[in-house]
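Take a record.
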Amino acid sequence: MSNRKKYSEMIKAEAKRLGFLSCGISKAEFLEEEAPRLENFLQNNMHGEMQWLENHFDKRLDPTKLVEGSKSVISVLLNYYPQEFQKENTYKISKYAYGQDYHFVIKDKLKQLLHFMQDEIGQIEGRAFVDSAPVLDKAWAAKSGLGWIGKHSNLLSKQTGSFYFIAELIVDLELDYDTPVTDHCGSCTACIDACPTDAIVEPYKVDGSKCISYFTIELKDELPNSYKDKFDDWMFGCDVCQDVCPWNRFSKPHNEPLFNPHPQLLENEKKDWEEITKDTFNEIFRKSAVKRTKFEGLKRNMKFLES
């Protein structure tokens, strides 16, 4: 067995031990297919006010510009599908934000994986990326065979659906590279038909500026009146396209204690959310990704849903 293959198997076994759902490896090189897609997305203003997506265009497409001397992109998936859910008739929060902020949880695991590689293989330079740098996570995960990009633009796997986080280690070590899997969306249009704001403008193309997640998290201005009654009670994020996807019937609950929600998040009814104080907000979402929208943002979103 070649060293490249041996090291790749060691890395995947350690990733599994650390609790990742799966791990795939691809060659660090220019993402040729993604370039025109990204350009089209930006030119058509589908990123709305997410101006940061316009920055570092070259780095988004070429990891060697991000990590000098990089040879491999190691992609990992971490399950966040919950054991328990919010009540039926309440203001909803996207499942990914139920527990502690994923950035910290995953970064810690990736650092452990890099230290393992350095201890077992030798001097390796690399950086961990968790949705906080110009890296096209889904493209790399698809390239390394962890799933295919579905019509809702999320990564899908036949085994586990799409309720997971994607992150990367970009390293200067040559490894054994995986190959992409085939698309299994077929003629299904469940996600397109169910999207409350028609954000999936055509199969495999999402207009980010029409997405409920964009409105409730990224948009800092007033919410547009033209979308009144279309938010389906989502006050932070939206899971509709994933909830209706047939592949998510295979989702299994995660086993990461840090992703377990604060009990009040599951118990609160609409009136409880409407009466929430800043102190209670800070207690329920102390280490949560919901803090991104801030107390005022959550109140704004609820007010929009109430009126």
Notes: DSSP finds twelve helices and ten strands in the chain.
